[in-house]
């Protein structure tokens, strides 16, 4: 019986991931109703990235300390990554100010 434990664990993890993706995928895309990057951050980003960009849990790391630049941040926001949804409704000036906001606050592990 014992030798099944790793398999059972793996299957539970796979199922959990699948369910998470299914439910996450069902969410309405976020549409910003304000120009304030601070409010947008709190509404759309903080539940994963933490109130101060410190991240949460294992899945959501703090913003990395690597130097990164505006175009990269903007690309992350609009296109997302494998763990982060893309925010295609954040664009133009709103996108610029949100990216500025993140860069300027210097969200990083070191500055916590
Ligand atoms: C569902 C959770 C989730 C939400 C919501 C989310 N992110 Fe992310 N984000 C992540 C994860 C996980 C990573 C890092 C892993 C990766 O790159 O795939 C990440 C990476 C990033 C990065 C790159 C950071 C680095 O150090 O490389 C930026 C910038 C970023 N997110 C900005 C935002 C902004 C701005 C918002 C809100 C508009 C947002 N994220 C919403 C999960 C999320």
Sketch the major β-sheet: none
Low-pLDDT windows of residues: 108-112
Number of helices: 4
- What's the architecture of the domain at 32-105 in CATH terms? Orthogonal Bundle
CATH class of the domain at 32-105: Mainly Alpha
Strand-pairing-aware structural class: mainly alpha
Helix content: 40-55%
The named CATH superfamily of the domain at 32-105: Cytochrome c-like domain
Overview of this protein structure:
With 112 residues, the protein is mostly helical. It has a domain at 32-105: Cytochrome Bc1 Complex, Chain D, domain 2 (Orthogonal Bundle), CATH 1.10.760.10. Helix content is 52%, strand content 0%. The protein has helices at residues 5-25, 37-49, 70-79, 92-105. The longest helix has 21 residues, at 5-25. The chain is elongated. The termini are far apart. The structure holds heme C. Residues 44-45, 48-49, 60-61, 63-64, 68, 73, 76-77, 81-85, 87, 90, 98, 102 line the site of heme C.
């Amino acid at each position: 019986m014992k030798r099944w434990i790793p398999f059972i664990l793996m299957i539970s993890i796979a199922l959990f991931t699948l369910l998470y993706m299914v439910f996450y995928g069902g969410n309405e895309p976020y549409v910003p109703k304000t120009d304030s990057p601070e409010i947008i951050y709190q509404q759309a980003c903080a539940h994963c990235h933490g109130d101060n960009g410190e991240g949460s849990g294992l899945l959501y790391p703090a913003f990395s300390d690597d130097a990164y630049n505006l175009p990269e941040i903007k690309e992350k926001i609009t296109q997302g990554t494998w763990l982060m949804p893309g925010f295609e409704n954040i664009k133009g000036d709103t996108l610029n100010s949100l990216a500025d906001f993140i860069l300027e606050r210097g969200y990083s592990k070191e500055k916590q």
